[in-house]
Amino acid sequence: MRYFLAIALLLSLFIATAASAEAAEFQNILKQPVIEITVNLSNSANELKFEPNHLEFQAGKRYRLRLTNPSTQKHYFTAKDFADSIWTQKVEAGNVEIKGAIHELELKPKAEAEWFFVPLKLGTYSLRCPIVGHTEAGMTGEIVISAEQ
Q: Contact, 53 vs 75, CB < 8 A?
């Protein structure tokens, strides 16, 4: 019985040490300066495109993705697989702060939002505006998450 108790205590100590190390690493990530990237959903001429339509992020870095919609119609920033591959700290829009899993953002005309996140999973992900006709007209893009350099 003592043998099992000793193993249980050692295992508990190992788990606690690993959790403490992960928490410390996570705190270090949150202390990083944020890297800001701006994406326009359309433009003042109401063209159906993301500007830029190719985004690159590095895993483990902290980002502020500033989304603006300068057009006179609403647009979506939809990239579900990308959203599943990041840790979202928060989304800020107006005087509202949203936390938790985010899969798409809808921006009304002239709206702005900021998405704070840390990429976790490497890969290439598609971006689109799912409003009928917008994807077909070219409102698409690509998001790449690469290894930290």
A: no
Sign of CA dihedral 31, 33, 37, 38: positive
CB 112, CB 68: distance < 8 Å = yes
pLDDT tens, position by position, 88-107:
999 999 889 999 888 899 99
pLDDT value of residue 16? 55
| Full-model pTM | 0.80
CB 111 within 8 A of CB 93: yes
Tokens representing residue 45 in the block: 């001429």
Helical (H) or strand (E) element with 24? helix 2-31
Q: Is the dihedral of CA 10, 14, 19, 20 positive or negative?
A: positive
Question: Which residues, at least 6 apart from 82, have a Cβ–Cβ distance to it below 8 Å?
Answer: 125, 127, 143, 145
